[in-house]
């Protein structure tokens, strides 16, 4: 029997992705699920439905709710969380670098570092020095940042984002098990459970 | 010590409200929380943010996801669920009648009947005979439908909807414990837990 698999779709600018990025590795290990980490960009997906920024900026009530909800959830999990005025941050540099980082075992630590820098430390992840510090803390080579600017790597991020759209993904975090889509950190355990029960 | 309290905000046209309406009574009783059931209308709230119908109609990816997600959730809970082409249904008659029904102990059964008619049976809750059947099955007087058309009762629904908006409610189901807002059936237990821990 093959080990059950799941794809994890996350966007570095997404607050709720922070929650899943921090807890998924331990939960997936417990559940015995192999997870493919797939950074993508929500910007083009939002643009396709007529939004020029995050729905949390466009719809004030949703935005106000999200900040308070994130505060409560992070407090309950012992995660530091700072509200930020610059939301959403530009996440392209982080996503491109993550694609290469995730080819190494320390890639997950890199991703977690980026979320901590942004949401616990309040730093700007569009800043090259912040991404460099995240690589360094994960003991990954600093030149991944430059390698990440190669055309093939840029195209890969575009392809992943197009695949997300084709799969009907409209927010982050999302989880897919074959054609089944689960949206939101609240659905993380449901998705793992689905992967277990529907393993080939 | 006063018994902990929570307000439960639901919209009769809302698929996810069905999930909470069916399970909240048992969960709240277990948790020892007194719940005030507050039917309201999402239409005016959506209109205020520029939507002329449900976001599940406006944003196809969200809509497709919702139907599949509801199917999975209902299957997991043993609830019958039918996809419908007429979404969202007109819920004003149901909401106005519910306000009066909820003054009786059988009010919750009435509300559950309305959701079952709509989402398990595929019937139209804007139809007077459907609402009459829901009253009858809950052993409530049939003339509540006519009483529900009184101006004072109409104004009450408008006032509740305005209060929902002032509280920052943007979707259903929602739960409030004093000024804390929780959105979505996924947050039902979190809201009950909050009510317990923050009881006066």
Automatic annotation (TrEMBL), chains A, B:
Its EC number is 5.99.1.4. Residues 6-191 form the DSBA-like thioredoxin domain. It catalyses: 2-hydroxychromene-2-carboxylate = (3E)-4-(2-hydroxyphenyl)-2-oxobut-3-enoate. It is an enzyme of class 5 (isomerase). SUPFAM superfamilies: Thioredoxin-like. This is 2-hydroxychromene-2-carboxylate isomerase. It comes from the Bacteria. Keywords: Isomerase. It comes from Roseovarius atlanticus.
